[in-house]
Amino acid sequence: MKSKLNLDPKVIDSARQHAASIANSMQEFIDRHTTVSTERTILRLLGIDGIDDVETPLPNVVVDQIKEAGGLPRGVSYWIGNAMVQTGLQPQEIAEKMSKGELDITKLETTSAEKAEAAIMPAIQKSLEVINAQKKAREDYLERLGESRQPYCYVIVATGNIYEDVIQAEAAGRQGADIIAVIRTTAQSLLDYVPYGPTTEGFGGTYATQENFKIMRKALDDIGEEVGRYIRLCNYSSGLCMAEIAAMGAIERLDVMLNDALYGILFRDINMQRTLVDQYFSRIIIGYCDILFNSGEDNYLTTDDAYESAHTVLASQLINEQFAVVANIEEWQMGLGHAFEMDPSMENGFLYELSQAIMAREIFPNASLKYMPPTKYMTGNIFKGHVQDALFNLIAVWSGQSLQLLGMLTEAIHTPHMQDRYLSIENAKYIFNNARDIGSEVTFKDNGIIQKRAQFVLNEADKLLADIEEEGLFSTIEKGKFAGIKRPYEGGKGLEGVCLKDEQYFNPFITLMLGGAK
Amino acid sequence: MKSKLNLDPKVIDSARQHAASIANSMQEFIDRHTTVSTERTILRLLGIDGIDDVETPLPNVVVDQIKEAGGLPRGVSYWIGNAMVQTGLQPQEIAEKMSKGELDITKLETTSAEKAEAAIMPAIQKSLEVINAQKKAREDYLERLGESRQPYCYVIVATGNIYEDVIQAEAAGRQGADIIAVIRTTAQSLLDYVPYGPTTEGFGGTYATQENFKIMRKALDDIGEEVGRYIRLCNYSSGLCMAEIAAMGAIERLDVMLNDALYGILFRDINMQRTLVDQYFSRIIIGYCDILFNSGEDNYLTTDDAYESAHTVLASQLINEQFAVVANIEEWQMGLGHAFEMDPSMENGFLYELSQAIMAREIFPNASLKYMPPTKYMTGNIFKGHVQDALFNLIAVWSGQSLQLLGMLTEAIHTPHMQDRYLSIENAKYIFNNARDIGSEVTFKDNGIIQKRAQFVLNEADKLLADIEEEGLFSTIEKGKFAGIKRPYEGGKGLEGVCLKDEQYFNPFITLMLGGAK
Amino acid sequence: MAKCETANTSVDLTKVKPYGDTMNDGQMEMTFTLPVPYGDEADEAARQLVKKMGCEEPSVVYSHDMGGGYTFFVVYGKCQHTIDYSTIHVAKVESEVMERDECGKFIEENIGRDVIIIGATTGFDAHTVGIDAIINMKGFHGHFGLERFKNVISINMGSQVPNEELIAKAKELHADAILVSQTVTQKDIHIQNLTEMVELMEAEGLRDKMLLLCGGPRISHELAQELGYDAGFGSDTYAEHVCSYIITEMVKRGRI
Amino acid sequence: MAKCETANTSVDLTKVKPYGDTMNDGQMEMTFTLPVPYGDEADEAARQLVKKMGCEEPSVVYSHDMGGGYTFFVVYGKCQHTIDYSTIHVAKVESEVMERDECGKFIEENIGRDVIIIGATTGFDAHTVGIDAIINMKGFHGHFGLERFKNVISINMGSQVPNEELIAKAKELHADAILVSQTVTQKDIHIQNLTEMVELMEAEGLRDKMLLLCGGPRISHELAQELGYDAGFGSDTYAEHVCSYIITEMVKRGRI
Ligand code: B12
Ligand code: B12
Ligand SMILES: Cc1ncc(COP(=O)(O)O)c(C=O)c1O
Ligand SMILES: Cc1ncc(COP(=O)(O)O)c(C=O)c1O
Predict the structure, then answer these.
(1) Catalytic site residue B370?
(2) Which residues of chain B have pLDDT under 50?
(3) Section A470-493 average pLDDT
(4) Among C51, C85, C119, which residue terminates a domain?
(5) Residues in CB range of B212: below 8 A, 6 or more apart
(6) Annotated catalytic residue, options A78, A141, A193, A263
(7) C145 lines ligand 1 (CB under 6 A)
(8) Is B236 a catalytic residue?
């Protein structure tokens, strides 16, 4: 199809090439490292679960002991495999014994990496079976119940209490929501462990725990049956436990996960080495289990100006795309983020937003673009806010967005109340239906405001990516080129959890999942 | 400029020809008749004002006496002129004496029509001077204070109390309104006289009186100075006193007047002969004094379906245009009405509305199109209503409407509160500015939904006009082709006030005003 | 870390409070204008007002200068009042609703003659869409009007009909039921007009000979009964509701 | 016909009521959700609630089934409470606001040394845009931040800063004023966090050595003072407001 924006395919290719080379050179760094969280993820996938008597999750207990003993460079796969060989115990039994101080797995006799790997293979197979069963379950639901047309109506619940969240989510499902995201409590991303069990206290969100995932998944499946439409569940994996939460999502059949190392670096001050390594494994899991990931470029525009810095969003989307390619993620699984965040008092702001939204669609024709609503310029004036959201919805249907995170008229006030969600779903459904085919009806003036804007943003992104390719991603972040936020290479949270692998290190999930194993 | 809708200029011409011939054949009827209200208008223009001791306005006293005596066919101009000749009194003195029963002007000796006419000429000249001074005053204000860009923000006040109206109008002016319409009290259009003095009690609106006009004009002039922008005043002339109120508007410097015989016939059950005759004189006055008139086609869509009956709106606009041409009204003074009234649950309704709005603009490129907001499908859900209004505002700036009657989120609930007006002005200004140049940026797919819709509506209107030309306007109305409402030729209110002129009848204002006299 | 307890998500219907995102949080949104000049004192006035209304932690999330000494507010607060939902009883039109065909059959079987219904929008009210929706062929939302009902003769007199004229016509035609539509409610003009109608009916000695119904967007059955009508109908009424009521009631009252 | 009297359009500031389109009409709009099933009884519950809040003629203009036994309402009513606006007194930061240049000059003339200001978003709050707007060069809405002020040394520690760290840094640099920003207010987490800060300052014996200011979209001067801060700043604060306050207060308190 011809570009409505007259975008130059050569510039798009060039930008994408730069991004690929950025991702590839980062991959060299990633391949040499592992992290405590990546290792804990392996344990979770091996079925290790539960907490000790001071509420430390067993995966943390195991990894901490191995780390303390200096065994982390070899990786937990080796140590568990070796322990299985030496003790004949199953992974969960090993972890439990370790938590009671009854076993020190780094002190056992050691076998070869090959034998250790062979020992854990059955547990790995079981893990893949669980995930594959969930993939199958999702396919069955989609076939039997069906789903809405895109843009999907994506809303959040954020009461802090999983049971209250369920009530809100059920109401939203009945009102027409297609995706429910359970927002995490403030600063969970900074915890270097995943809390355990159902939880009822959180601030601005609810803890992401495996039990909470399960409770919400069940609720949405039930509502899905009631309304005759599969309702997707979303949670957040970015943060210090990126890969672990992705694994939990795979096991509990989440459908969408926020997953973006750059977000954690910039907005949560997480160490860049740590989270980029974690991101790799988390994306492999996501890719394997048919989860759709969301990147967090929209956040840039909350600290940076949406008009001035639009190209940083596009540059980051291209990098995120290439990080996903490396992790074997399919195009439809790429929920690349962008946002409607320009100052509403800007003359022709609507045209610029429209231009950028269509540009994103043309550059990523098969991605499941995630379009974020106005937040920064929302005020306590809920009436004006509702109109800002209306324009946002119009652009979404016009430009064919995939995941529409619905704007809330109360954005500047509180996390959504039940009625806020209803009103925003109504707003979106009205406009999606009332302007359904506008995208195919309308074309733009050659070299008009709309075309020129997109061309400009694309050119700037290409230039920025060329710079980053030259300079390296780490150093680009150090210089504050994204979101106007500078983060040091050795700064931020979680650096102490990064570790160089030794030659005997192995992680069988990476190979199996990348290979698409059954 | 090329039609964006690919409208066939031949069909437009054909439709316009039919309308012209409809208006011209109606004009033959009109020319033969006068009405009590038309005659009272002449008296008002001659400076006759005030009420008698039972509160009957003096123009009514005079006309009623003449009518009773069988003198109406000759017209009041003759009778007053003759009385001046015979008594040496001025028109106001004559009226006062008549009201006290001290004078019976039909019983005086009679002079020739020429002499009678000569006698009233000085009073007529004075009347034109007053009007011309107001035209000049308006020009001066516009030059000195300036005005907003179009679409103008047009809001209503409707408290029933002129002083409360002033408070509401002042607030609206400060909030950015460009036109303030003072809605008339329920059913004033059925009164066969114009109430007198300032009034403080009305239902759903405030009485249109000359004093009320003056009070509001003053308030708006003052606010205009404060905010540095001329604020236009609007009121309603349709109804049994159509021409009288137009004359009052000319004298008190109203800028916009609702003026449409078809509205009165269909929605107020006013006799068609009566109001078409009155409309003619009222439009001559309006044309002469630089008032912009609004027609009421929007109302059709409140009783008829907006999608099915769109062509009746266009047909009526074309007829109204030709009635205006006959009355020597300039194109910019033609505030032809149309409306955004489709069911919001309609798929692609936005595209149809857009198509029709652009169609109106292309067919009447120089008219001051008056665009009416959603009313029929507004509900108590003020939030959804605010979004409906937002789409309406977007189409307005897109299609270049002139007078935007702002939708109120509380449309289904009450006449506007102060805050409702503020919120809707904010809604409109935000969208007008944010999408300022969208109209020139966008073109439509050939033979797409948008183009086809406009072409279809135009063709249907052309067919309907051909039918009406054949059938006659009176009989078309009898058959219910407009708004689905049938009205009999001899039915409705005010027929008793229609009267055939005799050969000596004259109305000097018609000739002078049509000739553009100074 | 988080404590594990189930949420108190169950409602006590004897003490119902508004719900935001937690049972009994009392969350409410209020918008209004005060005739006080924009500023911190205005915000405080708004807060105090909402507090007097029984809302804790009033929060002025938006205020805007409306000019001329008026200020607009959006306020959130936590309402502390509770309602005993379990004891609420609402007066409702009690006849069972029959479909159009069933109505026709019911008349045939139980009344055995045509039912005569006459309707109008009265006073200076010019809103006909509501009464048309009930009477005219075309109906409303895909529900046909009374003109399409078998064994029903219905007359729509249109709008702006004086009460006297409506009554005269009803008398002339020996109507079984009169339908009065009222849309304009400003300054309670509809109450005046509806009351006058009842008084005229009584004066004419017709009140207990014909069923008297009213309807419109601001009419409830309760209000109608208070004003002396047999029944009242609000938004989203269809002809079958009205007809079912009339014919059931005619049989009940033995007006056959 | 209409009577001719002037409108009662003047306001009695000792008895202020909401204004719709007539002085003292009390008109208010309320939206809320009740945990009761959609239907006539729900509407009645909403009406009763609004009545309990002191609103006459409550009118449910819209209600919608939210599913699962919840109903959403839009209600209008006429509030009968009044507020005595004439006696309202609002605690305000009282220093006069000086422009950026004036601030620099004022310091030079009255303090004679650099003023040291240190700020952070504390606790787990990650919202930096507010504190950045006050401190960073770039500022906000065209008003430069403290970094551009002459004779001011300012440090922005960013977000998610524990209270202890902020205090340690302030001590180390001998700060004249500490700025604390708080945006997340859910479950009053900001109150906890702000209170802890004051307690720590007191424990360290620093509370009367440094000015302690807080700010954020839900912070008022009144709240700040209640919590033991010297001043509090809400939305639309600019650096000059903050700086003017600090330097005036330093001079007043003789901290030169
Ligand atoms: C269409 C309309 C008009 C049209 C009317 C055309 C016509 N022939 O009817 C026109 C443009 C002429 C008009 C004019 C005016 N209107 Co008007 N109009 C409306 C509008 C947009 C829709 C009303 C409607 O048609 N609803 C659809 C019908 C199907 O619903 P309904 O009437 O509720 O009827 C249903 C039920 O109530 C019930 N029902 C109704 N009657 C009866 C009777 C019986 C016996 C039964 C059993 C049931 C029943 O059954 C129906 C079907 O379910 C409303 C705003 C809105 N969105 O509601 C304003 C509105 C009603 N109008 C209003 C006003 C003030 C006026 C004017 C007075 C303004 C003025 N000063 O000029 C004028 C004059 C009219 C007059 N004197 O009455 C106000 C009323 C405010 C108030 N509460 O008092 C409203 C609310 C707009 C506003 N916000 O200002 N209007
Ligand atoms: C931008 C933003 C973000 C960005 C923050 C980026 C960054 N680096 O700051 C991101 C995307 C990261 C984010 C994340 C979250 N956010 Co946030 N976010 C916002 C948003 C959209 C705008 C805030 C803003 O920047 N305002 C602009 C600044 C300039 O205004 P300001 O902060 O009021 O500052 C002014 C004054 O208050 C004052 N001031 C401020 N501080 C100080 C200090 C002093 C000393 C002084 C003198 C003055 C002063 O001066 C400033 C200039 O005038 C608001 C919604 C909104 N529209 O308000 C939500 C909002 C604040 N976020 C919210 C939430 C819940 C979160 C999360 C916790 C959600 C989650 N669970 O994941 C997360 C996590 C963050 C955390 N733990 O703190 C809620 C808070 C609800 C509540 N009241 O508790 C809001 C209201 C959104 C919502 N409706 O849910 N958010
Ligand atoms: C990509 C991504 N991950 C995670 C989050 C949420 O992170 P946290 O739990 O740290 O607030 C966001 C927030 O918008 C995000 O965009
Ligand atoms: C052309 C025209 N005239 C007059 C009116 C108002 O008439 P009335 O005063 O009869 O309500 C309208 C109402 O919308 C109108 O469109």
Answers:
(1) yes
(2) none
(3) 93
(4) C85
(5) B162, B182, B198, B199, B206
(6) A263
(7) no
(8) no
